[in-house]
Amino acid sequence: MGVFDPMKGAIKTVDKLNPLSSSDNSDQDQSDQDQSDQREADQQNEQRGGEQAVEWVAAPEQARPVEESEQVRVSRAEEELEVGTTEREAGSVGVHKTVETENVRAAVPVRREEARVERVPVDQPVEDAAIGEEVVRVPVYEEETVVTKRPVVKEEIRITKESREDVEHVAESVRKEHVDVDDAARNG
What is the dihedral of CA 64, 66, 70, 74, to 10 degrees? Predict the structure, then answer.
C-alpha cells in the first residue's frame, strides 16, 4: 500500500459525490472492461492469420444529470485565542511575633511603721491600779512591694490587601486552515 493510496480513495469518494463529474466509478470500470475485451479480440484476430476485422464501438456518454440539491461541503476551521484568568497563590506575607525578656527597674515608695517607746514620768495616785505582770503588744505595720503583670496592648499591626491591575501580554500560535480550489474540471 503506497503513501498516496488513502488519498486516491478520498478523491474517488469526492468524485462520486460530485454532481459535475462526467463519469462515475462504474462508468470507469465499464470503460476498462471494454478496452480489455478489445485487446482480447485483437489478439484472437492475430492468431487467426492476421485478418484484421475493425469493429467500431461507440461508447455512450453517460453524464449524470445535475441535481440542484446535491452538495459537497468542505468546512474551514481556525483556532481562536481565548484568554482568561484564574486565581492562584502568588506568595504570602508573614508577620511573626517573638517574645523578648528585659529587666525593668522601678522605684516604689513604701511606708513602714516604727515603734518608739518613751518613758514619761507621771505622779498620780490611782485607786484601781493593779499590780502584776502584763504584756501589751502594739502591732507595727509596713508596706511591701507586690509585683503583678498584666498584658497591655501597646501597638496594633494591620495587614491590608489591595488589588492592583496590571496588563500582561500573551503571545501564542494559532492555526488556520486555508482552502484552495483546484478547478481541474474547467481547465481540462
Answer: 90
